[in-house]
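We examine the record.
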Amino acid sequence: MANRKDLDPEGSPAERFGQLLRALRDERGWTQDELGIRMGCSGTHISAVETGRRPPTLRFAKSADKALGTGDRLERQSRAVRYTALIEGFPEYVAHEGRAAEIRLYEVGVIPGLLQTSEYAATLEADAVRREAITPEQADERVELVASRQATLARSPSPLIFAVLDEGCVRRPMGGPDVMDAQFVRLLEFAELPNTVFQIAPFSMGARRPFSLPVTVLTMPDRSLMSYAESTHRGHLERESTFVLPILTAYHQLQADALSQAESVALIEQLRKGTP
């Protein structure tokens, strides 16, 4: 114990994960070797993860959750370690998104990640690399996350997904014509799914549009509500129903004034044909 390294919970995501792993292990009175035996790895491996010298893989986090009986707590925490290119708060949101019974999203400017094709996502991130906002490796990480988030929605029972896109999302060109056409096809396919509602909020809504920034409302399996919104540098996940309910009400008002799904599909078809 004399050489036990102090961990900084305000340090890197890897250090925060390591501190949580150590705390959970200590609660059970297990040594690193004892936890390693339960997980099928060495105590040296456990030590390296706890001290932030080795990042936790998804497999490691799931194995630790199983051994410690912590549900998916460590798995969720590990996302912050793996996705270093994401703004603060988003990895936590993604973990809840993957379990939500209902997802209501509103996006401005670009197609939201859950509806993006890989080509559209890659084009979006390539521009961020050009602006030196992120590295090429971080761009790959973000594109990978888009596919991972979409994969978590292919579960049973399927979550209900309500997507309202500002008209600017579908009129803003991203990449060449082939990229946009494939993206339009993806939107049309999304609209045909039995567990989705797809709408466009037209420019003509003007001041009736209740949101000026993207927002997402999650309904969890226990019917609790969460909302997520982002500023330039960080995201905020709100769990207090008192604050989420007004956002949900505004979302319903947005849907009432937006184009119907049939009208929204017709607009996408027009854009595919190159007509205004």
